[in-house]
Design a protein that fits this description.
heterodimer, A: about 375 residues, alpha+beta, Rossmann fold, OB fold (Dihydrolipoamide Acetyltransferase, E2P), 6-stranded mixed β-sheet, 5-stranded antiparallel β-sheet, 8 helices, 20 strands, about 25% helix, B: about 280 residues, mainly alpha, MetI-like fold, 2 domains, disordered C terminus
Chain lengths: ~375, ~280
């Protein structure tokens, strides 16, 4: 096991900069998740760590070794791919043992380690099958087996769960988490699924357009996003963003939001006049509260234990759907615990508290603390 | 959609007609070999000789150097397959995997070489072979056939390699293979159906050639291929068509056997590239 140090790495194809200066220190045994929308550069950095893509500049260290120019096979890392990348012409046994064979290990040692890895991942019954005879979950386990059998310095995982169905994904997520706890190998995990990032990571790195937006543990990332993008990306459903402007009320700072003035006595609003107010869907309540507004619902989605209620607030809502690879915004969303029947088209009194509001500078998109 | 009985009958009649058209020349070749010269000239024609002249096969095997011709054809065809596959695997893989400026145009340009008629290349090839002393050598045939085979097999293999995920060789490289090692240990075994189909194409093209053999090997009897040998059986005044047909049957047998062995690869190999 080893720590990974990525120093000022950048990558460009011609004039296109797909990865701007990227620096990250990953501790020994740490589980770091790189997350971001499509094309943000997360897979590129993983391939640079693996040696499958050359960096345009910067250095990659694995432990004390500068591996920037080393061949992938000389780096002592193992990689799990989105499509598993199992060798279709080899059996499970040969697939898992392939890397060991390439390293010149004896047949006896290979067999022992293959069986150990297969037992850990519960695929020891399928050792003589070929990948095409396995289910998606079994293939994923074999791919993990191929990684752990080498006892590498680090695991690199490129969206390893995205080809699985929702139920199996949750199951394998837990298995990978348990596996990491058991063997403690430094892991860099790439996903576009913020739920995976939140549930698995020791630390999350959020990327956008080839740039790091924030590096933090999941709770900090959720509670203290540094900018509009991170605030919108983390959380499901994502945070609502409303146009707001700084004003005064009874001599104290206030903001105008959803057509009402909200006093912000104890909050720092910075110096910007144009603001964006963020509120997470779960911070709305039905009924009276510190601030209340009556809104007509446009859509009610019931999940059984809770409801997602959408409201059309017109131009007050800032549509950030393109940031999140979504086609369109359905409107302001409130996540309401079971409150009896809520109908589409019904006027619903919504309330929220000042302490749950986030403020962002509309120009820089940075959070105002 | 379920077919009606009438539609089924029409379909089967159509299939039977096409099969008949395709099979008739083979049947006629076989019948010609088994007929006497008299029967071949009779009108109306004889559709099954009485009695079949099986001894014609033994006669031509004894009188003509068929084994030598077949051996030369085999050497030329296998040589062409080895040379053209070696080049087109590397070329097809490079075109599929490495993004270079003009790479796509280069792929198409190579394919246009396939569109040139074989006879167009005869004169320049003859001139080149004569200057390097290859006229009369079986190598002239191997190289000439490869010039025809390589453009198409390169293009075909590029299409096949395109269907194989890049992650396979990336996984192999992370596992410790060099880029060439990943190709040899992972990509080529996975491409077996495509390689079989392209090799068969190369083999058949070389095996069926007459024009190049006639041009480069005419004065070198020991190197005659089967197709060239057959044409020398035609006399100025008398031609024994039954003997020519009997030798032709011998020449066709290796191709039939190879098709039977490679059939399961062939279908997969020919259709896999079509997905892209």
């Amino acid at each position: 096991m080893a720590n990974i140090s990525i120093r000022d790495v950048h990558k460009s194809y011609g004039t296109e900069n797909v990865l701007k200066t990227f620096s990250l220190e990953i501790g020994d045994g740490e589980f770091v998740v790189l997350v971001g929308p499509s094309g943000c550069g997360k897979s590129t950095i993983l391939k640079i760590i693996a040696g499958l893509e050359p960096a345009s500049g910067g250095q990659v260290y694995l432990g004390d070794r500068d591996v920037t120019d080393s061949a992938p096979g000389d780096r002592d890392v193992a990689m799990v791919f989105q499509n598993y990348a199992l060798y279709p012409h080899l059996t499970v046994r040969q697939n898992i043992g392939f890397g060991l064979k390439m390293r010149g290990m004896t047949a006896r040692e290979i067999e022992r380690r293959v069986i150990d890895a297969a037992r850990i991942l519960a695929v020891d019954r399928y050792l003589d099958r070929r990948p095409k005879d396995l289910s998606g979950g079994q293939r994923q386990r074999v791919a993990l087996g191929r990684a752990i059998v080498r006892e590498p310095q680090a695991f690199l995982m490129d969206e390893p769960l995205s080809n699985l169905d929702a139920k199996l994904r949750v199951h394998m997520r837990a298995e990978i988490g348990a596996l990491h706890k058991r063997i403690g190998v430094t892991t860099v995990y790439v996903t576009h699924d913020q739920t995976e990032a939140m549930t698995m990571a020791d630390r999350i790195v959020i990327l956008r357009d080839g740039e790091i937006q924030q590096i933090a543990d999941p709770d900090t990332m959720f509670q203290k996003p540094v900018n509009l993008f991170v605030a919108g990306f983390i959380g499901s459903p994502g945070m609502n963003f409303l146009r707001a402007s700084a004003t005064e009320m009874d001599g104290s700072p206030a903001i105008e939001i959803l057509g009402m003035k909200v006093s912000c006595k104890n909050r720092n609003l910075g110096s910007a006049s144009k603001l964006i107010a963020g509120i997470r869907p779960e911070h709305f309540n039905v009924g009276g509260g510190e601030f209340s507004v009556n809104l007509r619902s446009t859509l009610v989605e019931s999940l059984g234990s809770e409801k997602y209620v959408y409201f059309d607030v017109g131009n007050d809502l800032i549509d950030r759907s393109s940031d999140l690879d979504e086609e369109f915004s359905k409107g302001l969303i409130a996540r309401i615990g079971q409150q009896g029947r809520l109908n589409e088209g019904e006027v619903i009194p919504l309330s929220f508290s000042l302490e749950n509001l986030y403020f962002f500078d509309a120009e820089t998109e940075k959070v105002i603390s | 959609m379920k077919r009606t009985r009438a539609q089924s009958i029409r379909l089967y009649l159509g299939v039977a007609a096409v099969c008949g058209i395709l099979i008739f020349p083979i049947y006629w070749l076989f019948i010609t070999a088994l007929s006497t010269t008299l029967e071949l000239k009779s009108l109306p024609p004889t559709f099954w000789p009485d009695p079949p002249q099986w001894q014609t096969f033994a006669k031509v095997a004894e009188e003509r150097p068929i084994l030598l011709w077949l051996a030369n054809s085999t050497i030329a065809a296998l040589g062409s397959v080895v040379l053209s596959m070696f080049v087109s695997i590397l070329a097809g893989y490079s075109l599929s995997r490495f993004r270079v400026r003009g790479g796509n145009s280069l792929g198409l340009f190579i394919l246009t070489a396939k569109m040139l008629p074989a006879t167009l290349l005869v004169i320049p090839l003859f001139s080149i072979f004569r200057s390097v002393g290859l006229i009369g050598s079986i190598w002239s045939l191997i190289i000439a056939h490869s010039t025809l085979i390589i453009p198409f097999t390169t293009w075909m293999l590029k299409g096949y390699f395109d269907t194989i995920p890049k992650e396979l060789e990336q996984a192999a490289m992370v596992d410790g293979c060099s880029p060439l090692g990943a190709m040899v240990r992972v990509i080529l075994p996975v491409s077996a159906p495509g390689l079989a189909a392209t090799s068969l194409y190369a083999f058949v093209l070389s095996w069926a050639d007459y024009a190049y053999a006639r041009t480069f090997l005419t004065n070198s009897q020991n190197n005659w291929t089967a197709n060239l040998g057959i044409t020398t059986m035609r006399g100025e005044y008398v031609t024994d068509w039954n003997e020519i047909a009997a030798v032709s049957v011998f020449v066709a047998i290796p191709i039939v056997i190879i098709y039977l062995f490679l059939e399961r690869y062939l279908v997969g190999g020919l259709t896999a590239g079509a997905e892209k």
